[in-house]
Amino acid sequence: MSNHKVVILGGQGAIGSLLGRLFTQSGCIVYRVDQRTQGERSLCCQLDILNPAAGSEAIFTEAKAVVFALPEAVAIQALPWVLSAVGDDVQIVSTCSVQAPFHSALSAAAPGQPFIGVNPMFSPSLSEQKRPVAVTLDNCHVNEHWIERVLTQAGMRISRMTPEEHDRVMAFCQALPHAAILIFGLVLAKSPLDIGTLATVAPPPMRTMLALLSRVLLNPMEVYWDVQYENPMAAEPRRELLHAIQQLDSIVQAGDQTEFGNNLRHIAQQLGEQLNISAADCQHIFSTLE
């Protein structure tokens, strides 16, 4: 890994900055490419990758890997230009929150081009130590990839999956909880009650939901839009969420306590061993709320 040249498109963004730091720590030479510049940084190129200036493809000379730390649509649009400028052995790295569309575009344009997807399952504002990262590969049974070594050396926990598996998992790990949080926010925003009063008397579950909602609202909107819009597999859990709300309402309206209890027991059974693990997580969270 030492002295590998890595070009990061979108290198000034949150994910690009995180990966740039990790690659640098592993001994790689990192070139950051972005439309904007932030402060004085060496090996940083200001460039519109959707309208690149003549000769700008020189940034890829001797590159070992090119990281697309970009929104899905922009990454796919930029792909043909990048492929025209790199050799067929250069590693293409996608950080898209939805992996299958980019992977399909790459496979169609350059079937033999090396591919790996890297999706950190945490905000870049947090420490990467012991954090999960989803790694997508064409073949999950191959030996450890050199980029995986960069991630594990930084203390991250890797879960391998194919691009299609990744998007299915993300539909439930990202799109579903985000949708539930946003629905909570939409209902709260229409409430005639004073939010200050609600916050004053809010028990830990309400405070936790407010905290999750506030984090979403303070982060870039595009992140959450991509999770919902770009992943076609996200439609199913959203529909199931709406159905579950209607089901709960019907049970309560009917006064059917037995069915209510049956549903809770079914959910607990489905959680299995995760039930006690997550209950401990909840206790830890609630214990930090004063």
From TrEMBL:
It is an enzyme of class 1 (oxidoreductase). Pfam families: PDH_C. Keywords: Oxidoreductase. Residues 4-282 form the Prephenate/arogenate dehydrogenase domain. SUPFAM superfamilies: 6-phosphogluconate dehydrogenase C-terminal domain-like (SSF48179), NAD(P)-binding Rossmann-fold domains (SSF51735). Its EC number is 1.3.1.12. It comes from the Bacteria. InterPro entries: 6-PGluconate_DH-like_C_sf, NAD(P)-bd_dom_sf, PDH_C, Preph/Arog_dehydrog, Prephen_DH. Gene3D superfamilies: 6-phosphogluconate dehydrogenase C-terminal like domain, NAD(P)-binding Rossmann-like Domain. GO terms for molecular function: NAD+ binding; prephenate dehydrogenase (NAD+) activity; prephenate dehydrogenase (NADP+) activity. GO terms for biological process: tyrosine biosynthetic process. This is Prephenate dehydrogenase. It comes from Photorhabdus khanii NC19. The lineage of its organism: Bacteria, Pseudomonadati, Pseudomonadota, Gammaproteobacteria, Enterobacterales.
